[in-house]
Amino acid sequence: MKDWAWIVVGLGPCIVHAAPKVIFRLDDVQDHYNVAETRAIIDTFLSKNEVLNIGVIGGPFFGNDVAIVDKVTEAHAAGCEVFNHGDDASTLFNDLTVAQAQQHISNGEVATFRPYKTFVPHENRWSTTTLKALRRLKYKAISAGAESSFPMAVNLGTRPLRLPQVTQTADYAGGLWLSTIDQ
Questions:
Q1: Could you count the other beta carbons within 10 Å of the beta carbon of residue 135?
Q2: At what angle do helices 98-108 and 128-136 cross, to 10 degrees?
Q3: Prediction pTM value
Q4: How far is CA 122 from the centre of its chain?
Q5: Per-residue pLDDT of the chain in tens (183 residues, 90 and over written 9)
Q6: 116's torsion region: left (phi>0), alpha (psi -120 to 50) or beta?
Q7: How far apart are CA 139 and CA 182, in angstroms?
Q8: Rounded to an integer, what distance in angstroms lies between the CA atom of residue 6 and that of residue 18?
């Protein structure tokens, strides 16, 4: 795997916790879904020798479309991280028990890309039970939620590490992502 860095950047004051790199994330990668677009995005990053984090929806949604599977496998071999984006797009993790969350997270894993380090819950919905399940499964990071204040503090001592997905476009509260329109 290529070395890559975590960065947190804001308008005005910012906190940088590693090398000045941005993490690009492509979510919802699955069989027979936006195949040409997904392949084109991955090819663009590979052609520039840049790292792209690829969120695979596992379970029954990944593994049968050769065009997608081969492209994600190629990107993984080139150093891109493949992260777990759940076992389906309808499971929301904010109301699950630890056991339920652990089962859904495990079901989302595609054996080819183990071990997983990062989990990204759908619609950014998660709770403390999600974190407990991730700890049990040895995940290192969750990328979810939104921050509206700067600088965005990231506690590097917590596991799994929580990195915001979105900045200054929404407010985060209780594991739910709320658009500013909803307030």
A1: 15
A2: 60
A3: 0.71
A4: 9
A5: 333 333 333 333 334 344 445 678 888 999 999 999 999 999 999 999 888 889 999 999 999 999 999 999 999 999 998 999 999 888 888 889 999 999 999 999 999 998 888 888 887 778 888 889 999 999 888 876 554 444 445 555 666 655 555 443 344 444 444 433 333
A6: beta
A7: 32
A8: 6
